[in-house]
C-alpha cells in the first residue's frame, strides 16, 4: 500500500505532466515526430549540363562570326588530335552550323527534362506534405489521448486519496 507522501508525490508528478501537455512544453518521443528528408534531386547536374551547353553554343557562335569575316580564299585548319588538317570554308561553316543545331536541340531536350523533373519534384513534395499532415494529425490525436489519460490518472489518484482520508 502506498503512503500519503508517496501518493502526494505521484499526484504532483502526474499534475506536472498534464500541465506540460496542456501548455505544449512536454516533449513527445522523437520517434513519433515525423522527420523531413530533402528530396533527392539532380538539379546541380542539370545546371552544370545546361551551363556546358551554353558555353559550347557561345564558342560555336564565336567561330561562326569569325567565319563571316573571312574571305572565301582564307585557309581554315581543323585540329584533330595533334594534327592540323586543311578544311574548306563551306565545309567548316557547315560543321559549325551542324554543331549549333545539335546544341540547340540538346538545350531544348534539357529544358523539357528540367520541366519534367520540376513537375515530379512538385508531385513528391505534395505527397510528402499530405503524409506529413496525416502524421501530424495522428501525433495531435495521440497527444490529446495521452493528455486525457493523464487527466484520468490525476482524477483517479485524487479520488483514491479522498477515499483514504475518510
Any overview of this molecule?
The protein has 166 residues and is mostly helical. It has 3 helices and 2 strands. It has a two-stranded antiparallel sheet. Strand 1 and strand 2 form a beta hairpin. The two termini are 16 Å apart. About 5% of the residues have low confidence.
A few lines on this structure:
By secondary structure, the chain is mostly helical. Helix content is 75%, strand content 6%.
Share of residues in helices? over 70%
Count of alpha/pi helices: 3
Q: Give the termini separation.
A: 16 Å
Taking Cα atoms only, what radius of gyration do you get, to the nearest Å? Answer: 36 Å
Widest beta sheet: strand line-up: 1-2
The structure class reads: mainly alpha
Order of helices and strands: HHEEH
Mean pLDDT: 77
Shape: rod-shaped
Q: Beta-strand percentage?
A: 5-15%
Q: Layout of SSEs?
A:
Layout: H1 4-23, H2 43-69, E1 76-80, E2 83-87, H3 89-165
Antiparallel strand pairs: 1-2
Helix pairs in contact: 1-3, 2-3
Key phrases:
single chain; 166 residues; mainly alpha; two-stranded antiparallel ribbon; 2 strands
